[in-house]
Amino acid sequence: MGKPPLTIYLAAPRGFCAGVDRAIQIVEKALEKYGAPVFVRHEIVHNRHVVRSLEARGAIFIDELDQIAEGRPVVFSAHGVPKSVPAAAQAQGLFYIDATCPLVSKVHSEAQRHYGMGSEIVLIGHAGHPEVIGTMGQLAEGAVTLLETVDDAASFQPRDATRLAYITQTTLSVDDTAEIIAMLRRRFPGVAGPAREDICYATSNRQSAVKAIAGRCEALLVLGAPNSSNSMRLVEVAARAGCPRAILVQNASDLDFANFAGIRTLGVTAGASAPEVLVRQVLDAFANHYETHIEEIAVTREDVEFKLPRAVLD
To answer: Is the per-residue pLDDT at 118 higher than 80?
Structure first.
C-alpha cells in the first residue's frame, strides 16, 4: 500500500524575526572579529539548535559575569538585561556587546520616559521571563508593577490613577493582552500607553498566520522551545482558533508518528527563535510517512532589518 495523503498548511510568516537574526549575527560576527571564545550571558535566543551551533563555533554561554575569561568579550542576549548588568560589566572592566532587540529597547525607553514624567508604571507580561526581568530592571525596584492576567488588572490599585502608564512584553498573545489593556482602560480611562503597541510585529504576524490555518488543521505543530514565550503563545492561539491538537515540538526527533495516525491535514509554523532548517526537517520527516502536499498560507511578508552595533562591524 502507498503512503496516506497529508496536506500540510505552512504558516507564513514563521521562524526567525529581525531581532533574533540580529542577535545571532552579533555573536557570529563577534567570533569572526575577536576570535573564540566569545561569552554570551544566558541563551542568546530561546532555541537549543541555535545555541549548540554557536557553541560549536566558539561561543560560551554563561549565567554570571564572573565566569568570563579575562580580556574576552561578552554579549548580552536579545531579551535585554537589567541596567545593573552593564553597570556590573563596566565596574569589572569587561568589554560587552548588547544584542537586545531594538523593539525591546523601545519598551525600555518608554518605561524610562513615563517614569521621568512621574507616572506609575504597570508592565503586562509573564513573571520570570528574561525580557520582563530586563524591563523591570530598567527602573528602581518597586517602580514597575507586573500584571499577568485580566484578574490582575481588575484588582490592581494604583497610587494615583491620574498618573498611570502601561507597557507590555513584546512576545505576548495579542488577544490576551488586548483584554488586559481593555480592563485597564475601563478602570482608568486616562492611563497612558505606547504610541504604537509594544507587542512586536513578528509576534503579531506569526499569531495571525496561525489563525489563518488553525481551522483547517486536525493538528498543528509549533517548532520552538518550551521557554520561548512567543512559541508557547502560538500553541495557545492555534487551540483557540479551532485546531483540535496544537503541539509544541523542538525538532523532528520529538515527533511520535503514532500520534498522527489517520490525520489528513496538518499545520506547521515556527516561533521567532526557531530556524527554518528545523521546519524543513519536520517536513522531510512527514514526507517519509505520508504523501505530502504542502501549501504555504501567507498573511503578510516581512522585510524588517535591524542594524548591527559598531563593535562587531569591520
So the answer is: yes
Residue 284: count of CB within 10 angstroms of its CB: 11
Q: Would you state the pLDDT for residue 279? A: 98
CATH architecture of 5-16+201-298: 3-Layer(aba) Sandwich (3.40)
Per-residue pLDDT, 38: 98
Q: Is 291 a catalytic residue?
A: no
154 to 114, 124, 180, 183: CA distances (angstroms): 22, 13, 9, 6
**CA 262 to the chain's CA centroid:** 33
Could you tell me if 189 and 214 are in contact, meaning their C-beta atoms sit under 8 angstroms apart?
no
pLDDT digits (tens, 9 = 90+) for 209-252: 999 999 999 999 999 999 999 999 999 999 999 999 999 999 99
Within 8 A by CB and 6+ apart from 22, the residues are: 78, 99, 101, 102, 305, 306, 308
DSSP 8-state secondary structure symbol assigned to residue 307: P
Same fold, 5-16+201-298 and 102-187: yes
Domain residue limits, the chain: 5-16+201-298, 18-101, 102-187
Q: Cα 231 vs. chain centroid, distance in angstroms?
A: 7
Q: Which of 302, 273, 205, 271 is nearest to 24 (CA)?
A: 273
Could you give the CA distance from residue 99 to residue 307 in angstroms, rounded to a whole number? 11
Mean pLDDT of 10-26: 98
102-187 to CATH, choices 3.40.1010.20, 3.10.310.10, 3.80.30.20, 3.30.230.10: 3.40.1010.20
Distance CA 228, CA 249 (A): 12
Q: What is the DSSP letter of 236?
A: H
Q: What is the mean pLDDT of residues 76-94?
A: 97
- Residue 299 sits at the vertex; the CA angle it makes with 295 and 300, to the nearest 5 degrees, is 120
Cell numbers 512576545 correspond to what residue? 171
Which residue of the set 55, 70, 131, 291 is catalytic?
131
What span, in angstroms and rounded, lies between the C-alpha atoms of 49 and 280?
14
